[in-house]
C-alpha cells in the first residue's frame, strides 16, 4: 500500500508543477543546476523505488547488558520504551492513559467508569489515524475506516470488559450491553451520550441495585477545568547590532629590579656626575677657550697644510706657464725695441701677454687697475658696455703677470662690474661699482668662496643708476676707510666702511640746467645731470672733479653740497676720465666720447692742449714716471702715447692693439714701476704692452745741478713746457693749429 | 694598620643620599614633577609603612591624572609591567627606596 501512496504523491506533486507552469506569468523561473550533476535518464526517474518501513529500530541493541554490582553479575538491561530517543523535556500532562496503572487505579476507585467507556475508543481511534497520517503522508480519510473503527471499538470494549470484570465481576453483563448501544450511535454528542449512558447506568443501576449504587457519577477525568488559552504575539522588530572599536592607547613594557645595591650604585653614579658638572661649571670660560684653542690648532694645521699644497700647486702652475711663455717673459724683461734709436721721437708698444678668463669671454673689461703694492698684479672688472644686451653677471679678477693662464683671484658678482678701485693702504681691499647701482667691497684675502665683504643696502641707499666710477678716499675721523662713488643718477656718495655695513652719505647731487619737468601728477621733477667720472685732487682731499654725461666738468668740494666750486663745459659728449698729473697738481687730462683728449690747468677755462683721436676715447692716464707722458685708448682699438715734451701736437706712438671691427679698447693703466701698460677690450681680454725706450725717456739733469732728483726734474720739465703754452697768444694757437692739423 | 687610614677615608666618602633620583621616566615634565613631589611627600609621611605610602600616591595620582595608577614602594623587588606610554616613573628615594608609578587601565 505504501508504494501506491507514494506514487499518488508523486503524481500530485507533478500536478502541482504543472500548475506552477501555468503560473509562469508570475516570474520566470530557471532552475539552477550544479555543473557536476549527474544526468539521469527519464526512465530512471520514472522508476518506482519501494521503501519499506518497519517498526523495528535497527539501532536498538537487542541484548544490552550492564554489570550489576549488587548481584555481582551482568544483567540484561531492560529495553527502553522510547528506544534510542532521549527525552529533552518532560511535561507532566493531566491526561493519563486508560490502560496505565494509575488509570486502572482510578477506575478501580470508581472515577469515570462509564465516561471511559465511550471516551476510550474515540481517543484510540484518533490516535491511530494520526499514526496512519504519518505513515502515508496523506490526510485522506479512509472510506473503509468505518468498519475498522467499529471493530476496534468492539475490541476496546472487549478489552475494557476484563478490567471491569476484574473489579466488579458481578456487573458483567451491563457494560457488555451498553457498549453495543454506544457503537450504534457514535455521532451523538458526548454529553448526551453521557446522559444517556448515565440514564442507562441508572437504569442499569436500578436493574442491578445492590451491586452498583456505591459508584458516584463523575463525568470526566482528563481536563477538569474548562478553559481555553488565548495569546497574541506582538511584532518583533529585527535586531541590528553596530559596534566600533577604538585604538587602544599605546602601551609599553618596562622591567627593572630594585635592590639596595642597585639603588646605592645609581646614587653614587649620579652623585659623581653632579660633582663633575660642578667642577665643569667653575672654569667654564677657561675650558671653553682651551677647547677652542685646541680645535683651532688642528684647524690651523690643516689649513697650513692646505695652504702649502696650494702654494706648491701655484708655483708649479707658474713654472709651467713660464715655460710656455718663456719668450714673452724674456721680451718683457730684456727686449727693447732697437729701432727706437733710429727714429727720434717715436716709440712703439710691444704686446706681451693676453689675459683672458674663460667664463668672461663675452664680457667687456670695464675697468683695469694695477695694484699699488704688488707691481705684477692688476685688477680687472668684467662688466658689459653693450647696454642693449646686458650680461647678467659680472666678475672681479686679479691677474698676476706671473701666471697669464688663470686669474689669481676671481669672484663672480650678481651684476656686471663697471668700475673698481684698489685701496692703497690695504692693497687687498677692492671696492667695485656695479651695473645695478650697488657698491661692494671685496677682500681678496678671504677664500674664494666668500663673496663680498661689504655691500650697499639694495633697498635703502644704493644708487639708482650705473655706478660709473669709484674711488677710495681718505680715512674718516674715526679711522674708517671711505670711498666715493659717482653714478648715472647724478649723486656722489661717500661710503664709510663700518664694521659689518656700509654707511652712505650723499655728498652732492649734480644739478643740470634743464628746467624742472612736470610730472604725471602735477609735481615738478628736477632732472639731475648724470655723472660719469670722478677724480680727487691729489693734495686737497676735499676737492674733486666730476665729469658728466653732457660733457660738463664740475669742480666740487666735500664741504659744499649745494654748489660747484667751478663748472665748465669741457666736452660735448660724456666725459670718460679725468686724471691728475702725478707731478703737477694743477694739471689734469680729460677724455670724452667726442673723440678728444684735453689737458687742463686748474682755474683756466680753456684747455692747454687738445688732441683729437678720431674715435671715442675711453681712457686717458698720465704716466707715473714722466710728467709729460700720457696714454689714451680709443674705441677703434688703438693706444696713443703722447709725450708733450717731445711732440706737443702728435702722439709719439699710435698702435692698434685690437682689431677695430670686432673689439674696442676700454681702459688703460700704467704700471707704477714697470714699463708696461695694460689695456682692456670689450671681449674680455687684457693686453699687457711694453713701452719702448723712446716712450719712457727720463730727464737728464743739467750739468750745473747734477744732484737734482728725477722728480724735481720732471716738475721743472713740465713747468717749462707750461710756461710756453700758458702764453696767451700761444694758447689759442695751439688749439687752432691742432684743429687745422686734423 | 694599613686598613685604619682607609676606613676613615670611606667614612668621609660615605654620603647619605636622600634626594629623589629618577631612574626611568617617560612622563611629561609637569606630570613627572608632580609624581616625584608626591612620592617624596608620601614616603616621608609614611616612612615606616610602604603600603600606606603607595596607597597615598596612587590615590592622589588617580585624582589628578585619571584612574588606574599603580604604585609600588619597596626596598627590593623586581617587576615587569605593561604601562600606557608616557605614564611611567621609576625613581629612587631616600637612598634605599624604589618607587614605581605607572598607569594601566
UniProtKB/TrEMBL annotation, chain A:
Residue ranges, compositional bias (Acidic residues): 132-141, 154-170, 187-196
Biased composition (Low complexity): 171-186
UniProt keyword list: Cell projection, Cytoplasm, Cytoskeleton, Dynein, Microtubule, Motor protein, Repeat, WD repeat
Disordered as annotated region, ranges: 113-204
Lineage of producing organism: Eukaryota, Metazoa, Ecdysozoa, Arthropoda, Hexapoda
Location relative to the cell: Cytoplasm, Cytoskeleton, Cilium axoneme
Gene Ontology terms: cellular component: microtubule; outer dynein arm
Entry-linked InterPro entries: Dynein_IC, WD40/YVTN_repeat-like_dom_sf, WD40_repeat_dom_sf, WD40_rpt
GO molecular-function term, one example from the UniProt record: dynein light chain binding
A biological process from GO: outer dynein arm assembly
Superkingdom of the source species: Eukaryota
Protein family: Belongs to the dynein intermediate chain family.
Protein name: Dynein intermediate chain 2, ciliary
Keyword Nucleus: no
TrEMBL record, chain B:
Family the entry assigns: Belongs to the dynein light chain family.
A single Gene Ontology CC term: axoneme
Compartments it resides in: Cytoplasm, Cytoskeleton, Cilium axoneme
Gene3D superfamilies in the record: Protein Inhibitor Of Neuronal Nitric Oxide Synthase (3.30.740.10)
Function, as annotated: Force generating protein of respiratory cilia. Produces force towards the minus ends of microtubules. Dynein has ATPase activity.
Top-rank taxon, per record: Eukaryota
Primary location recorded for the protein, binned into one broad class: cytoplasm
Subunit (UniProt): Consists of at least two heavy chains and a number of intermediate and light chains.
Keyword terms: Cell projection, Cilium, Cytoplasm, Cytoskeleton, Dynein, Microtubule, Motor protein
Annotated transmembrane regions: none
Pfam families referenced in this protein's UniProt entry, alphabetically: Dynein_light (PF01221)
Protein known as: Dynein light chain
Lineage: Eukaryota, Metazoa, Ecdysozoa, Arthropoda, Hexapoda
Keyword Nucleotide-binding annotated: no
InterPro entries membership: DLC_sf, Dynein_light_chain_typ-1/2
GO biological process: microtubule-based process
Amino acid at each position: 500500500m505504501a508504494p501506491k501512496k507514494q506514487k499518488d504523491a508523486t503524481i500530485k506533486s507533478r500536478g502541482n508543477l504543472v500548475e506552477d507552469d501555468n503560473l509562469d506569468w508570475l516570474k520566470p523561473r530557471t532552475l539552477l543546476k550544479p555543473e557536476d550533476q549527474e544526468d539521469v535518464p527519464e526512465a530512471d526517474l520514472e522508476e518506482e523505488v519501494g521503501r519499506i518501513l518497519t517498526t523495528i529500530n535497527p539501532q536498538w541493541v537487542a541484548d544490552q547488558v550492564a554489570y550489576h554490582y549488587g548481584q555481582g553479575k551482568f544483567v540484561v538491561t531492560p529495553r527502553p520504551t522510547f528506544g534510542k530517543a532521549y527525552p529533552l523535556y518532560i511535561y507532566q500532562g493531566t491526561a493519563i492513559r486508560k490502560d496505565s496503572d494509575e488509570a486502572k487505579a482510578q477506575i478501580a476507585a470508581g472515577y469515570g467508569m462509564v465516561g471511559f467507556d465511550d471516551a476510550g475508543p474515540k481517543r484510540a481511534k484518533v490516535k491511530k489515524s494520526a499514526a496512519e497520517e504519518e505513515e502515508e503522508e496523506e490526510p485522506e480519510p479512509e472510506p473503509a475506516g468505518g468498519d475498522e473503527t467499529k471493530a476496534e471499538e468492539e475490541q476496546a470494549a472487549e478489552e475494557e470488559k476484563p478490567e471491569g470484570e476484574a473489579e466488579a465481576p458481578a456487573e458483567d453483563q451491563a457494560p457488555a450491553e451498553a457498549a453495543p448501544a454506544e457503537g450504534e450511535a457514535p455521532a451523538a454528542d458526548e454529553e448526551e451520550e453521557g446522559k444517556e449512558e448515565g440514564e442507562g447506568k441508572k437504569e442499569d443501576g436500578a436493574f442491578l441495585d445492590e451491586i452498583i449504587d456505591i459508584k458516584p457519577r463523575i463525568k470526566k477525568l482528563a481536563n477538569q477545568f474548562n478553559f481555553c488559552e488565548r495569546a497574541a504575539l506582538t511584532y518583533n522588530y529585527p535586531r541590528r547590532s553596530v559596534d566600533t572599536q577604538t585604538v587602544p592607547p599605546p602601551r609599553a613594557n618596562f622591567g627593572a629590579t630594585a635592590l639596595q645595591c642597585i639603588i646605592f650604585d645609581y646614587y653614587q653614579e649620579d652623585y659623581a656626575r653632579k660633582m663633575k658638572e660642578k667642577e665643569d661649571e667653575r672654569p667654564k670660560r677657561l675650558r671653553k677657550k682651551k677647547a677652542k684653542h685646541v680645535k683651532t690648532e688642528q684647524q690651523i694645521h690643516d689649513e697650513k697644510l692646505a695652504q702649502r699644497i696650494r702654494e706648491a700647486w701655484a708655483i708649479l702652475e707658474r713654472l709651467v706657464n713660464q715655460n710656455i711663455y718663456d719668450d714673452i717673459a724674456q721680451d718683457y724683461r730684456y727686449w727693447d725695441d732697437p729701432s727706437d734709436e733710429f727714429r727720434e721721437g717715436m716709440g712703439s708698444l710691444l704686446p706681451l701677454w693676453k689675459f683672458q678668463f674663460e667664463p668672461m669671454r663675452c664680457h667687456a673689461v670695464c675697468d683695469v687697475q694695477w695694484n699699488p703694492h704688488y707691481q705684477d698684479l692688476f685688477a680687472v672688472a668684467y662688466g658689459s658696455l653693450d647696454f642693449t644686451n646686458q650680461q647678467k653677471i659680472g666678475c672681479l679678477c686679479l691677474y698676476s703677470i706671473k701666471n697669464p693662464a688663470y686669474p689669481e683671484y676671481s669672484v663672480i658678482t650678481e651684476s656686471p662690474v663697471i668700475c673698481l678701485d684698489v685701496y692703497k693702504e690695504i692693497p687687498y681691499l677692492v671696492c667695485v661699482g656695479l651695473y645695478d647701482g650697488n657698491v661692494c667691497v671685496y677682500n681678496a684675502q678671504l677664500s674664494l668662496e666668500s663673496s663680498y665683504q661689504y655691500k650697499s643696502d639694495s633697498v635703502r641707499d644704493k644708487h639708482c643708476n650705473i655706478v660709473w666710477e669709484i674711488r677710495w678716499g681718505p680715512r674718516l675721523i674715526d679711522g674708517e676707510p671711505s670711498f666715493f662713488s659717482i653714478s648715472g643718477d647724478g649723486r656722489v656718495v661717500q661710503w664709510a666702511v663700518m664694521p659689518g655695513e656700509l654707511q652712505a652719505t650723499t655728498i652732492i647731487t649734480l644739478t643740470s640746467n634743464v628746467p624742472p619737468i612736470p610730472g604725471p601728477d602735477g609735481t615738478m621733477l628736477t632732472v639731475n645731470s648724470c655723472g660719469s667720472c670722478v677724480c680727487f685732487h691729489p693734495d686737497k682731499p676735499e676737492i674733486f672733479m666730476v665729469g658728466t654725461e653732457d660733457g660738463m666738468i664740475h669742480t666740487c668740494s666735500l664741504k659744499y653740497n649745494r654748489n660747484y666750486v667751478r663748472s665748465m663745459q669741457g666736452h660735448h659728449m660724456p666725459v670718460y676720465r679725468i686724471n691728475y698729473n702725478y707731478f703737477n697738481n694743477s694739471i689734469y687730462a680729460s677724455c670724452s666720447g667726442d673723440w678728444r683728449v684735453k689737458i687742463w690747468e686748474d682755474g683756466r677755462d680753456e684747455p692747454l692742449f687738445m688732441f683729437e683721436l678720431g674715435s671715442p676715447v675711453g681712457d686717458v692716464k698720465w704716466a707715473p714716471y714722466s710728467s709729460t707722458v700720457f696714454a689714451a685708448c680709443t674705441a677703434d682699438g688703438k693706444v696713443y702715447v703722447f709725450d708733450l715734451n717731445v711732440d706737443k701736437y702728435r702722439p709719439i706712438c699710435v698702435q692698434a692693439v685690437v682689431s677695430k671691427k670686432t673689439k674696442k679698447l676700454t681702459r688703460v693703466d700704467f704700471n707704477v714701476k714697470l714699463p708696461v701698460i695694460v689695456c682692456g677690450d670689450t671681449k674680455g681680454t687684457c693686453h699687457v704692452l711694453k713701452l719702448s725706450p723712446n716712450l719712457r725717456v727720463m730727464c737728464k739733469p743739467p750739468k750745473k745741478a747734477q744732484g737734482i732728483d728725477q722728480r724735481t726734474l720732471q716738475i721743472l720739465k713740465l713747468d717749462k713746457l707750461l710756461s710756453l703754452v700758458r702764453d696767451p697768444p700761444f694758447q689759442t694757437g695751439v688749439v687752432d693749429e691742432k684743429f687745422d692739423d686734423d | 694598620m694599613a686598613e685604619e687610614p682607609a676606613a676613615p677615608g670611606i667614612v668621609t666618602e660615605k654620603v647619605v643620599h636622600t634626594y629623589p633620583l629618577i631612574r626611568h621616566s617617560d612622563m611629561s615634565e609637569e606630570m613627572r614633577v608632580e609624581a616625584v613631589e608626591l612620592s617624596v611627600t608620601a614616603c616621608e609621611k609614611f616612612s615606616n609603612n610602604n603600603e600606606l605610602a603607595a596607597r597615598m600616591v596612587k590615590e592622589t595620582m588617580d585624582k589628578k591624572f585619571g584612574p588606574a595608577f599603580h604604585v609600588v614602594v619597596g626596598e627590593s623587588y623586581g617587576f615587569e609591567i605593561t604601562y600606557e606610554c608616557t605614564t611611567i616613573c621609576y625613581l629612587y628615594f631616600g637612598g634605599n627606596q624604589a618607587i614605581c608609578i605607572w598607569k594601566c587601565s
